[in-house]
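Note to self: user wants both folds in one dump. Writing first protein now.
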Amino acid sequence: MARFDLITDRKEIRAAQKALEDVLDDALPIRPGTYIIGHQGGNNEAYTLRANARIWHHRQVIRNFGTPRFWNAFGLASQLSTKRSNNITVEINSPLSGSSGAIAGMFAREAGGGLALLHSGKVGGGRPGIGKSEFIRSLGAKLVPVFDDDRPSSERSVLLVARFDDPHSIRGIEAFVLAVARFKDRNSTDNLDTWTMKKLKAKALAAQSKPRRTLQEVVVFYRSPHIAAYAKRRANGYCDLCGKKAPFDVNGAPFLECHHIDRLADNGEDSIFNTVALCPNCHRRTHMAFTNADITHLRRKAAR
């Protein structure tokens, strides 16, 4: 397993932040307009916000609030708007110097000299059911050890977001931001699993027997039937995720459902390289309990 040494020197942290900015600036063009970025401390106006088709990024140096740090805010490009406040999906910050357990992001140097961006996995702001252990478990990702040379006994296990010497490092950052978004989306409502049966029954009996109705505007994506047919033909009757045979036939053909690895709502492509064929059970799983290992597996399947 790779070893990472935490960068704590002020000049080295500044150089690592510059390396991160270079990666982001190469991949994320400036998005014209003024954007309001909402956060716990209030709102920021961003005039040089950067975004591609998947994520947006805004940065600044914070010196007078909490721990002085490089502030790197990320969100979903599909939700970006100049007409309302934009929610931050995740922050990947670093202290200006030293180390801080209160800040989840960090820079490190891998054995051999390469710079890397790491994250503790702490997301969700401390809400019940939305925290570090739940997020790491949902990812199914392997943690890497990071060491602080100033405190030899302070080894920590953290998530590797990106290596800066990797020409595709932006993909690691995008994957991390999208994974946080999926995790928060799945856990955005009250966790009813923690309720007692008595409380659940009382709430169920008090609920309206006739659901209220409301009119909503819905965005519909028109997907190519040829891409869907190709993905199913490529699967040859077997689920691309679990590998099992389709559970039943419809009109003499194995029943599989098409799934986009990167959601169309997150500006994922409707292409054969982003579309797979899944059994109904695995299709539901991708929307409820997807892991990074699942994503890697399906990308290999779609690349065939």
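First done. Writing the second protein, which came from a different request thread.
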Amino acid sequence: MTREQLTKNIAALPPAARRQVEELVEILGSQQQPAKKMAIKTTDFEKSGFIGMWKNRNDLKSSTNWVRKLRQSEW
């Protein structure tokens, strides 16, 4: 659909439906902006303490075995 056809289709809608289209466009536009603001720099994440937090845990040496044992105890 071309932009011109889209404009005509929206103009042909009843007023209440046009308001819904406008609201939807506003919602979709606002959802795009926070994604840019929420970007985390790699250096910030590295300083957070999450990287390597489980390096000394012997029970997590093999994630496959850990999940298998967890499933056996829960199921």
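Dump finished. Worth passing along: The chain has four helices and no strands.
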